[in-house]
Amino acid sequence: MSTENIVNIAQRARIAANKLQYVTTQDKSVALNKIISVLADKKQEIFKANRTDKENAEILVNAGTLSASLFKRLDLEKGDKFDTMLKGVSDIDQLPDPTGQITYSCKLDEGLELYRVTCPVGVLLVIFEARPEVVVNISSLAIKSGNAVILKGGKESILSLAALSTAIQSALADTVIPPDAIQLVETREEIKALLELDKYIDLVVPRGSNSLVKYIQSNTRIPVLGHADGLCSVYVDKDADIDKAVRVVVDSKINYPAACNAAETLLVNRSILSTHLIPITTALQKANVKLHLDSESLSHLPSIDSSLIKECVAEDFDTEFLDLEIAVKVVGDVEEAIQHINSHGSKHTDAIVTENEQVAKRFMQGVDAAGVYWNASTRFADGFRYGFGAEVGVSTNKTHARGPVGLEGLVIYKYKLYGNGHIVEEFGEGSGKKKYLHEKIDVTEKIV
Ligand SMILES: NC(=O)C1=CN([C@@H]2O[C@H](COP(=O)(O)OP(=O)(O)OC[C@H]3O[C@@H](n4cnc5c(N)ncnc54)[C@H](OP(=O)(O)O)[C@@H]3O)[C@@H](O)[C@H]2O)C=CC1
Ligand SMILES: N[C@@H](CCC(=O)OP(=O)(O)O)C(=O)O
């Protein structure tokens, strides 16, 4: 696409975003329900496009140039993926409108009232992996939060994405939401050109590998909300219940090994090696997980399947395997576990298994991650599971939005000041000057 056309896409997104400032919750609901019905009507057409994407991808899988997990992500037909995707749109419709919410109010003077009110970010540019349903998840979240979005998914999903976004745009054509609110681009070159357009685009969300996020951060002036790799750890403490430890570690690793919220590192307290390590590693091996063991854990596991054991190297603790592999390290206490996670983790999601509340609290306060869990699988790090309907992805940024990004992550705020000819000159410390009241206003309803 020419540079001129790319600028045109960004300009149209900007115009759509400006219009979206005025749409009502009811308008959004009409649009989301229309999207559900058009997607349902066009299901076979969308599946046909998805099948062609899969046929093309299969050639690459057979040639060994594409992973089986990428192929699995690409598949929109399998199981209940399509229905779950539609349910996500309906769930988002049911959630409260995130815009127009008053998060601060203050009476500065008689007749002078200040409100902080949530509002859309504006125009988003979201880059994501070859997972077709993400286009529907993000479009729904964008519409409900009043944002326009330009989307680019992984190249392997190009036909599925085109079918889905065309369906969404045709649904919007029958509503007050401008179809330009949801636009698709297809290539890295187009992204490169869009990254220059800080005049039209307000926020870039790169969702994918660390290298993608780093590339975007280094090549744009637009603020970036990075959704990068998940180097998640589970720490099994000396006061861990064995059954809970096995359940949490195994689920964190095998429930969906290619996801960013799968565990990549297992930290085990030294004092429970003889009791907990064997049941946990046996369960992992039963699930075909390859263990990258440090020398201390290796010396405690003389008799397990050696084809699934490797002595670890230092880099294993900085590796996102995204597969049935896990690095195992013995630590002395929770402090060492926290220190390890804070120096090797990716600030995504980390879990502790323990029955000791004090130790759990220490872990949850000390670990610097978007999600810190006690006796629960890292796989819960997900917008749907958090009750957000769906997610843009899992933010590994520390500011604006952290962890699964749903509707609240897609709004900012503005301060609205309602006066009656008030001027600053009248206020001050001297005689005859007015003093600020700074009284909280009891707000019960939405304001304009
Ligand atoms: N935190 C989160 O929410 C999530 C994180 N991830 C992480 O993503 C990784 C795996 O996903 P994977 O598909 O391999 O990710 P990639 O980063 O390889 O690709 C993701 C997307 O980024 C695009 N892309 C990559 N580099 C560039 C670039 N330089 N310029 C423009 N576009 C670029 C790709 O385009 P193209 O296809 O055209 O090459 C694709 O659309 C794992 O680390 C996983 O943890 C995955 C999902 C969610
Ligand atoms: N958040 C979702 C999906 C995670 C995700 O995006 O995975 P993937 O695209 O396969 O890296 C989940 O927990 O299953």
TrEMBL record:
Residues 4-295 form the Aldehyde dehydrogenase domain. Keywords: Amino-acid biosynthesis, NADP, Oxidoreductase, Proline biosynthesis. It catalyses: L-glutamate 5-semialdehyde + phosphate + NADP(+) = L-glutamyl 5-phosphate + NADPH + H(+). It comes from the Eukaryota. Gene3D superfamilies: Aldehyde Dehydrogenase, Chain A, domain 1, Aldehyde Dehydrogenase, Chain A, domain 2. Pathway: Amino-acid biosynthesis; L-proline biosynthesis; L-glutamate 5-semialdehyde from L-glutamate: step 2/2. GO terms for molecular function: glutamate-5-semialdehyde dehydrogenase activity; NADP binding. GO terms for biological process: L-proline biosynthetic process. Its EC number is 1.2.1.41. The keyword Amino-acid biosynthesis applies. Belongs to the gamma-glutamyl phosphate reductase family. Catalyzes the NADPH dependent reduction of L-gamma-glutamyl 5-phosphate into L-glutamate 5-semialdehyde and phosphate. The product spontaneously undergoes cyclization to form 1-pyrroline-5-carboxylate. This is glutamate-5-semialdehyde dehydrogenase. It comes from Rhizophagus irregularis (strain DAOM 197198w) (Glomus intraradices).
